[in-house]
Design brief:
The chain is α+β, with helices and mostly antiparallel strands. The chain has one domain (3-219): Fumarylacetoacetase-like, C-terminal domain (Fumarylacetoacetate hydrolase, domain 2). The protein is 15% helix and 34% strand. InterPro entries: Fumarylacetoacetase-like_C, Fumarylacetoacetase_C_sf.
């Protein structure tokens, strides 16, 4: 199995994109960015489909369903015209966010790694080889909590398309095989609480299901405890 196909075990980094759907930027009262906003998540935040996503005490956890792009080979300063050749495959992901932690850190103009970096805060589907995805710029992403649809978007609404993201990231940091790019979330983000059952699907334009991602939200025992100031 290639490093890309086993990216959850062997990948070195998760590069996430903030505010890449204008409706989501609006719902958080954020300006639409002039270039992609990037942040990193640790690979220790992965939890495979079927697992438990642990919410630390005091944390208001929000779901953000996203298309993940799995990098297939090492590259730096990748031109947009060649970006597609650096894609090995895809995955369906949820970028869990400790929203109250993030808002306090943002209000102090501090980095918000803690809000994104908790263990189990990147639920992830199985790997989808590139050959199974005819057009990554027209995929529907949906997320349900306890059977109720909360997010239902399409990758065609991205502000910065995948080739632009690959180019931009690779001008800042070298991309390596097995790295995951989280391409941003559509609108509809909101809370997940212990006891919730979360179900996500990725479909192509014909309605064919490419991936599912399911997880249970549980209260984390011990560890971090958020206390607002």
């Amino acid at each position: 199995m290639s490093v890309a196909a086993s990216f959850v075990q062997q990948g070195k980094k998760i590069v996430a994109i903030g505010r890449n759907y204008s409706e989501h930027a609006k719902e958080l009262n954020n300006a639409v960015p002039k270039e992609p906003i990037i942040f990193l998540k640790p690979t220790t935040s992965y939890v495979p489909s079927g697992g438990n996503m642990e919410i630390p005490k005091g944390v208001v956890a929000h779901h953000e369903v996203e298309l993940g792009v799995v990098v297939g080979k090492r590259g730096r300063d990748i031109p947009e015209s060649e970006a597609e050749s650096y894609v090995a495959g895809y995955a369906l992901a949820v970028d869990m966010t400790a929203r109250n932690v993030q808002e306090e850190l943002k209000s102090k103009r501090l980095p918000w790694t803690a809000a994104k970096g908790f263990d189990t805060f990147t639920p992830i589907s199985t790997y989808i080889p590139k050959e199974q995805v005819s057009n990554p710029a027209d995929l529907s992403l949906s997320l349900k909590i306890n059977g109720a649809v909360k997010q239902d978007g399409n990758t065609k609404d991205m502000i910065f398309p995948i080739p632009r993201l690959i180019h931009h990231i690779s001008t800042i940091m070298t991309l390596e095989e097995g790295d995951l790019i989280l391409t941003g979330t559509p609108s509809g983000v909101g809370p997940v609480v212990p006891g919730d059952k979360v179900e996500c699907t990725l479909k192509d334009s014909t309605g064919k299901e490419l991936a599912t991602l399911n997880f249970n939200a549980v209260q984390r025992e011990g560890g971090y405890h958020y206390k607002p100031e």
